[in-house]
Amino acid sequence: MEANKIRLLEFIGSSKRTFNIPVYQRNYDWKEEHCKRLFLDIEHIASSNFEVDHFLGTIVYVIGSTQPNFMEFIVIDGQQRITSVMLLIKALYDKIEDTELKEDILETYLINKRAPQTLRLKLKPIESDMLAYEKIIENENIADSSNIIKNYNLFKQLVDKSSYSAESLYNALNNIEIVYIALDKDKKSENPQLIFESLNSTGLTLTQADLIRNFLLMNHEYEEQKRLYKNYWSKIEGYLPNAIISDFVRDYLTMKSGLIPKKDKVYKSFKEFVNENINYNEEQILEELLIYAEYYSWLINCNSPNKMLNELLQQLQQMKSTVTYPAMLYIFEDCFAYKKITVDNLIEIIRIILSYLYRRLICEYPTNALNKIFATLSSELEKLVLTDETYYDAVVKILASKSGSGTFPRNEEFRRAFILKDLYKTKIDKYTLFQLEKYNNKEVVDLNGEITVEHIMPQKLSPSWQIDLGKRYEEIHKEFLHTIGNLTLSGYNPKLSNKRFYDKKEILINSNISISRDLTKYSIWNEETIKDRAEYLFKIATLIWNLPEKYNYAIDVDKIDYDIDYNIMDDLNVTGEKPRQLIILDMEYNVNSWKDVLREICRKLYELDAQIFESFVKHKDFEGRERRIISNSSDGMNSPFKLTEKIYIETTLNANAILNYCKLIVEKYDMQNDIFFRLRP
């Protein structure tokens, strides 16, 4: 490694050289404030009669290809600074009138006049910026919104408005200093990738996706980098925007390992995955990522080659089920790459996944429990020898075997929740009614923004509605107002309003929506008809969100599943069981006993809101039969855990007692869906 301080113009202009920005770097993205700051620093040099210097920063590079009299510098760090300076030099060149000085600037700092075409420009930005930069150097007009064009025009404006001449500003550039660091790419200790990571260790400048791209491309020669970028990474970016790539790689790693990387550790997990799989080289990884990137674009854009598949993917989005993506990537590959299953079978598999998700939403199972289930689904399927005939059954069996917070609700549980749930207060009311309308209807109306969810029995009861409902009208209204039996779809909402049921029927008889038109078969609208319609819609619901009949048996509530995450609120007998992990707000903590669980929950929730926890000291719920469980004194406690100087917690309790007190604490923090635990086999 060679490191020296040098004047920037000397660094750029001496010994004919070209600065290549490698393809793994980001686009040039200096903002207006950065450019103005640089320009003010240069004006400051001019104002002080060129007696002060300005340190611009560090430029790190490795030597690329060399030819007689010409050298190629591959810029690893500092591309934003050097690109900005080159744009400023060109803006000054445009303004300077001295012909000889202009020629000197052009041939010393902007071009290599007698170099081969590939090395003619002093600076070669990445491909997406290159066209704009070439146009600037060639003085050609270009309609482009890139930062290259914006900042070049900004520098020209700043030069025009400056109180200093273009010549003075150019002379001031001689007082700009940098430190250059030249790496020897053949030395392991000077690995460009490791140096680059060190320079960007704060994580403020590069996204996880940027780091992953650099990792896969940086250690290759420049021409090989360009080939890999063009053949793979640019196509991945064509499928997925940069902001999505980190999530994509996270789901890819989850599918591969069954473990879910933390969002800010995706790059670290990716590096570990690549380094542990010695049979993979960078090109093989890129090739595989490209295949999965197309599948992932189908998931987020619902644009697969199959219309029915896209409709189901839209339903996944409506239920905000990104947690299924790792499993979906695996199943897509089995269908489209390995041809293990047909597209028709794939569609049936997605239907059962949708059924699992929907039933759980209706029955109010915690969604956090799904993370582990879909993270490990691919590995569970991989252990089985599956054919087109058995693949669907395997997926159903795996999902139906889950218990606790991972349960696939059976028909009777689903029926109770579906009929009585306040569906209107959820985000799936319109989705539910649309699917009910669509079932067995070939001509489905377009449910655009004008179609709304309508209450048949209105939200505000008029005197006539009170008479129609009878003496128990308040009770009926409270119990059934927002339930499925009393909801429909309509574009006539303002017209229907609080009209009596008889009057509503006169309007709905002309509706294009069958579930609304069918209401006309009822002569009155009361508790009995609401229940009757709910039962009718439930029968359709079991066909849409199906669970094969052979799985509709009563679930063994005492069966322990060691592969799933149990919600802290699950009704589970843990006598004789030991915990191994606690998950609080998606953060995992290793535990060895139920005492550890109690201690960790108390610590973390106290950190979240100390005031809530301090209220437990005097709360009756924590008195216990023989002694207080949470107190401001350890007196009388057998094994106190000291949370703070004024809060002590009794830990000598059996497993179920500890779990019950944990539930009590969690409930008071309203975090029932945020805390889970795993049991040790």
Automatic annotation (TrEMBL):
Cell cycle among keywords: no
GO MF: endonuclease activity
InterPro entries: GmrSD_C, GmrSD_N
Domain GmrSD restriction endonucleases N-terminal: 10-217
Keyword Hydrolase: yes
Annotated keywords: Endonuclease, Hydrolase, Nuclease
Domain GmrSD restriction endonucleases C-terminal: 408-539
Name listed for the protein in its UniProt record: DUF262 domain-containing HNH endonuclease family protein
Annotated source species: Alkaliphilus flagellatus
